[in-house]
Amino acid sequence: MKILFISRAYPPILGGIENQNFGIGKALSEIATTRTIANKSGKKNLPFFLPWVALKVLFILPGHEVVLLGDGVLSPLAVFWKMFHRKKKYISIVHGLDITFAHKKSILGRIYRAVNIPALKKLDRLIMVGQETIAEAQKLGIPEEKCKFIPNGFDADEIIAKKTKEDLERLLGMNLSGKKVIFRGGRFTKHKGVEWFIRNVMPKLPENCLFVAAGGGIAKKTAGDENYFPKCEKAVQDLGLENRVKLMLNLPRPQIKILFNACDLYISPNIKVPGSLEGFGITAIEAAACGRVVLAADLEGLKDAIKNEQNGFLLESGKADMWADKIKDILADDDFRNDFGKKASQFTIENYSWNKIAKKYLEVIENTFS
């Protein structure tokens, strides 16, 4: 079987979809004949990439059986290709934003709902990164039988590294003696819960707790979720937490790896925001793989990533006292964090490594022909 994988979001650009597309593309190429065509220059290049790839695929598709799309943005192109190559199979990976963007009250949101959602319905199969994504897709009229849930994966060799508190001190530019470092990685959007955590949980934690949030920013003109980095900064200033909270924007991957491997605790304190959705919890499983104790909101795709008491703990979203109490308990017991971290790492590697996930993808692709 020859697979043609098309991605409009790919490294070296940083982001969740970029990392996911790179991971599955690489893993599939190791178990099946896979050709990847990717946009490596970010959203600014899409006006050039989309028409170019639309024409290019028309000519090379006869040599492939399957087209796999990296996300739902590309679904109208698959409908276009299907007009000329009807016997091929067309499958799309569907992330949370691929569904929630249809609810945006903007011109682009209305266009997406009118064009992309009908296009997704015409594809042969949709691989959803979370169970909640399937539920939301059904509300838009996408048949459940067309959807298949496969979790995101991660590259253990890429993320797991031996890092020390000294490495973390150099990165943060401060002495961490006696301090406990809580880390949250991911884009600065409202539903990720960073601002909520700063305002509601940090004041309840001991003075020796240092919270570090690092992730990508969102350009002002970018469609999708609002950039919440300025509001996170304001929360720090309002509460006078400059010495206890560090916000790090667009941190390079090697430095992110230091935080994953040397922090004392990892959190995903997501909150429910209408029109937004956590499709999965990729940073949560990366942290667990690195042997960190993970606390995650019992919400949306995080429930697919974190299995309670196996590779982390699920806490009720928005309950500040509950979060503060759990954090204090975890940080007070070094031996527990050590032992649970080893268990969490093993569970995560066994269940979410890209080589395991790629086999599930290939099974779904093969079953599309039956």
Please tell me about this protein's structure.
Helices cover 45% and strands 16% of the residues. With 370 residues, the protein is of the alpha/beta class. The protein has two domains: 2-153 and 353-367, Glycogen Phosphorylase B (Rossmann fold, 3-Layer(aba) Sandwich); 156-352, Rossmann fold (3-Layer(aba) Sandwich). The strands form two sheets. A six-stranded parallel sheet has the order 2-1-3-4-5-6, sandwiched between helices. A six-stranded parallel sheet has the order 9-8-7-10-11-12, with helices on both faces. Helix 10 (229-239) links the parallel strand 8 (209-215) and strand 9 (245-249). The radius of gyration is 21 Å and the shape is globular.
Order of helices and strands: EHEHEHEHHEHEHHEHEHEHEHEHEHHH
**Percent of residues in helical segments?**
40-55%
Output the CATH class name of the largest domain: Alpha Beta
Radius of gyration: 21 Å
What is the CATH architecture annotation of the largest domain?
3-Layer(aba) Sandwich
The largest β sheet comes out as: 6 strands, parallel
- As a percent range, the share of strand residues is 15-25%
The CATH topology of the largest domain: Rossmann fold
Structural class of the secondary structure composition? alpha/beta
**Biggest sheet: strands side by side, in what order?**
2-1-3-4-5-6
Counting DSSP E segments of at least 2 residues, the number of strands comes to 12
Q: How would you describe the shape?
A: globular
Distance between the termini: 14 Å
Number of structural units classed as domains = 2
Mean pLDDT: 93
Helix count, per DSSP?
16
Please mark out the parts with pLDDT under 50 across 5 or more consecutive residues, or reply none: none
CATH superfamily of the largest domain: Glycogen Phosphorylase B
